[in-house]
Specification:
The structure is a single chain. By secondary structure, the protein is an alpha+beta fold. It has two domains: 155 residues, Jelly Rolls (Sandwich); 107 residues, Homeodomain-like (Arc Repressor Mutant, subunit A). Helices cover 46% and strands 22% of the residues. It is built from ten helices and twelve strands. The protein has a six-stranded antiparallel sheet with strand order 1-2-9-4-7-11. A hairpin with a 5-residue loop joins strand 1 and strand 2. Helix 8 crosses helix 9. The longest helix has 19 residues.
């Protein structure tokens, strides 16, 4: 039987940084998003994933870059699966770094490349993971991490000007998305969301999918999972988390959680609370 392992935890650096150490053989990730960026280092095997309209393959020692809210997937590209470690820095992390680099100007980077080959940054990432695992001082770990993120942002990131709203519909679509983020427990109907935007149900689904690269229902699942991770990390029971996040039952919750994160809610909570 394939052994799928994923250990998530928060490191006490830069006001909190989510980290995962994972090994998968048959895990297949459906389309999903993360609140923060994903910066992953492939340690064994290779991963195939979809991002930004194309499929990519990251081999051993490659660095995976996924922007915050980028829709992406994931699966093995080799017979033996793949092993990787990843950090999930937030937009706020990069904003702070860009302010320091650019004299208080906040420019959140956009990574155009999904996979990069950079031996120096890969070595720095390994060092960051090692220091965190070994319980090194916060000063040392944050210094290494800050330098690594700064090099990624300056070397591979570019700033995308925020497009001024040419259409009110875009802003209303964001309101619908914010509703899904805030009211994860609500069994909202398609008609209700379409009414927020002021269009037909058909056009709402099409416009939402075009704007965010994911269907409203798939986004709702991701919003629920993001909230679920926070509740589990806070020590809430699995059943209370499932109900509080709007899942039908614990089985429904477990299935979506495992499919998106590669680990069960129970395993996630155990590793999070022990970290």
């Amino acid at each position: 039987m394939a052994k799928e392992q994923a250990k998530y935890h928060y490191a006490d650096v830069l006001n909190g940084l989510e980290i995962v150490d994972a090994k998968y053989e048959r895990q297949t990730f459906s389309k999903h998003v993360h609140e923060g960026y994903t910066i992953g280092l492939i340690e064994q095997g290779a991963q195939r994933f979809y991002r930004s309209g194309a499929n990519h393959v990251a081999a051993k020692n490659s660095i995976i870059l996924v922007n915050a809210d980028d829709v992406h997937t994931g699966e093995t590209a080799t017979a033996g699966g793949w092993k990787y470690k990843a950090i999930y820095p937030t937009v706020e992390h990069f904003n702070q770094i860009s302010k320091d680099l650019l004299n208080n100007q906040s420019l959140t980077p956009y990574f155009k490349d999904s996979v990069i080959e950079d031996a120096r940054i890969a070595a720095q990432l390994r060092c960051v993971f090692e220091q965190i695992e070994n319980g090194a001082s916060k000063l040392l770990t944050e210094t290494l991490l800050y330098s690594t993120l700064a090099q990624l942002a300056s070397g591979y990131g570019r700033h995308v000007e925020v497009v001024k709203a040419a259409s009110v519909d875009v802003q209303k679509l964001k309101l619908a998305r914010e509703f899904l983020d805030e009211y994860t427990q609500v069994n909202v109907s398609l008609e209700q969301l379409a009414n927020v935007v002021g269009c037909s149900k058909f056009h709402f689904v099409r416009q939402f999918s075009q704007a965010f690269g994911i269907t409203p229902h798939a986004y709702q699942i991701q919003a629920r999972l993001i909230k679920a991770k926070k509740m589990l990390r806070a020590g809430e029971s699995i059943i209370d988390t499932a109900i509080g996040c709007g899942f039908h039952d614990q089985s429904h919750f477990n299935r979506h959680f495992k499919k998106a994160l590669g680990t069960t809610p129970k395993q996630f909570q155990l590793t999070s609370l022990l970290a």
